[in-house]
Structures
1.
Amino acid sequence: MSLLDYFSKDGFRREEFVFDTIAPVYDFITMFATMKYSKAINQLRKHLPIGGASVLDVGCGTGQWARLFKELGATRVVGIDLSGRMLARARRSYPDIEFYKVNAVDMRMFEDNSFDIVTASFVLHGPDRYNRNRILSEMIRVARVAVVVHDFDSRPLPFFSRLVENIERSHYRDFQASFLDDLRQFGYGVRKVELRSHLALYILNKRMRVG
Ligand SMILES: C[S@@+](CC[C@H](N)C(=O)[O-])C[C@H]1O[C@@H](n2cnc3c(N)ncnc32)[C@H](O)[C@@H]1O
């Protein structure tokens, strides 16, 4: 990959370039955010059992979110990501988790309903709305019980977060404006759990059909 990929119209090439580039320092620069992951997952456990579940983590990066599911007793945890360099770090840190280089818009390597929980942490605010919904529909297809998205809520982001998102050229504003409505359009029960620091858990329950 080269610097030209940062300016590519193909959002996935850009994401791969950005995360390949920052992989060596990713855990350091996100240290304060990832420290809050345990609290978020404890909130999630109030709504969804994790022990004994199989879990697919989409856009797993260096594995910081995926590892919590393993620690809480998930039987099988699989992580997928676009960035080979993020995955290399994840594999080194968490050898008991399976990691694959896959673009989440096409997860045909996984059958329908093949994981109890399919999750994505800080991934879906990145792509544009069209690609976000493609990823979301793949996540819902592969999930048996629930889809869990850990990401921004609709509150305005602080300056530093906006700066990072603008450098990353993410679609966070559109995500904040439209994600909840888009998620509800799949026709399943959706619960939004507000967390501190402009974050939320979005839990789609595949066992609950609505509308
Ligand atoms: C901000 S990082 C979050 C990493 C991890 N989920 C966490 O919470 O620490 C976003 C990750 O999503 C990955 N990603 C973005 N779009 C993707 C796609 N279409 N398919 C797979 N991975 C993707 C990026 O490569 C990056 O590693």
Note: Residues 12, 15, 19, 59-61, 64-65, 80-83, 86, 103-105, 121-123, 126, 135 surround S-adenosylmethionine (CB under 6 Å).
2.
Amino acid sequence: MHDRPDMWLQEALQALDERALRRQLVTYAQAGGVIEDSGQRWLNLGSNDYLNLARDERLRAAATEAIQAFGTGAGASRLVTGTLPLHETLETRLAEHKGYPAALSFGSGYMTNAGAIQALVGRGDQVFADRLIHASMIDAVQLSGARLHRFAHNEVQSLAEQLDRPASGRRLILTESVFSMDGDLAPLDEIVAVAKQYKAMLMVDEAHASGIYGPHGAGRIAAAKLQGDVTCGMGTLSKALGGYGGFVTCSSRMRDWLINKARAFIYTTAPPPASVAAAIAALDILAAEPDLGTKLLARARTFRDQLQVAGLNTLQSDSAIVPIVIGDNDAVLRVARRLHDQHMLVGAIRPPTVPTGTARLRCSITLAHTDADLTFAAECIQEACRQEGVL
Ligand SMILES: Cc1ncc(COP(=O)(O)O)c(C=O)c1O
């Protein structure tokens, strides 16, 4: 009797194994685009530390100082006694940076999407989401109880057709500014026009755009001056900003609403002082060094061009995320293993993270990678694909 739970687990894990879909944790010596481990240099193309800030001295110093001043934990949720001056400062700075009237920070990007979406819609409401949006938004819609409609990836006509059907309740459109697994860009102007036409709210996830696009890395909403039309922006502190946490940028009224209704904000301890201080330090760096994102995108472009010339499929990628579609789950694992042998870490992304038949290597370029690193990586990837018969 006592081993029955173990039996179904064993069978379920074996089923994952059989489809080359079992995931396992691996421990790495460091975070970031380049890892030094026991005298060996590893090229890490699986890190979202785009601006190479996760180990930056200035962020470390700010985090250490915050720990000395405030301690290691906030000790309570934001609505009880967890709000520290650092939280207020971060939110004021994020709002200024993104060009919105207000901002609200959350424990992580996942929690931001969970909290904000669940506060904006509920049972009887309608959500229209790009087919490729991140799992955190899908989970959030399910949590909210709203009805989920999916539109074809980046196809505004498909969105308009769905909005055109009569439906009750509030309407919310969800998309990503830069898509996390394809690296392509949403047509924000066109989506805004449709949102206006159908009087729908629009939320844009800028997890992979924040810190990279637009003035001082303010993101694609700010670059296109769409703050007045995009109901709320979402960002994470965990990728280009090198730390941990998430945030929403919105109107002051919406911030008030989120404080009252976003369960992932209310029922959890406030973000710890070190993370908040590190994020403020990252914003200082973006203010002082406005060209970091441009530099990053240029490096990614060169890398992508090399792969495309060799005949590899990098989809419509136009960001620091460069996918290389292999198709088969086993083959992508074999290619990744060959790269590992060359001290190169590349994510082998398989379903359900991406659609069946589109298993891929997902390379994220960071400022820790030199041009020489990226040329070497592009050559190794081509060679590994050839050896595995997928090029
Ligand atoms: C598009 C997108 N949104 C949200 C998240 C969640 O952010 P976080 O890692 O800060 O929880 C991620 C990354 O994991 C993401 O890629």
Note: Residues 57-288 form a domain with the Aspartate Aminotransferase; domain 2 fold (CATH 3.40.640.10).
3.
Amino acid sequence: MLLLDHGDRFELCVDCIESGFSSVMIDGSHLPYEENVALTKKVVEFAHQFDVTVEGELGVLAGIEDEVSAAHHTYTQPEEVEDFVAKTGVDSLAISIGTSHGAFKFKPGEDPKIRLDILTEIEKRIPGFPIVLHGSSSVPQELVKMINEHGGKMKDAIGISEDQLRLAAKSAVCKINIDSDGRLAMTAAIRKVFDEKPEEFDPRKYLGPARDALKKLYAHKINNVLGSDGKA
Ligand SMILES: [Zn+2]
């Protein structure tokens, strides 16, 4: 399973499909609605000839990922969803309901809430249709602390609570993208080795622990948060 995340051009999707990707995302969410529809439809028509599935996006997430960045959430409008899915033929749809890309989503003291009411409204309009949430890292405070204790300088930040994600995972949400938490887990593990054993220079000795930390993190997410164990 190989997925292109946030493809921004038709040509990029074509390249990935021709190189054997099993799924591509075309993110036209920053475009005017009709242009998003047209671009997504074009990718779907090409991809489906090769049995490659396509994820589209409606609504814009706050935060930064790769070259995609936005200062504020633009929530997905439930009334557009049905039309978008029908016109484009997408296989899954990423929506914007308050999650956010990156590790610096919200400041401590904020109480970030996913707009589950929008999710419910969307589910009513396209029952059972696979929904995707991006930007769903929780920014575990013990990892931020570990990084900073071992020479790091991460500013205070919090993410989406795992309780909020558990609620979303019970709905038609079929994929929840979590990237920053994995970056934090690997960075914390590597920093710890470098700090405690400054003489170490064998990558196996720090990349090994980093990989173990990543496995542990995702095992926790799969079993305790997403409820996706055995559902692939
Ligand atoms: Zn994303």
Note: The longest strand covers residues 53-58.
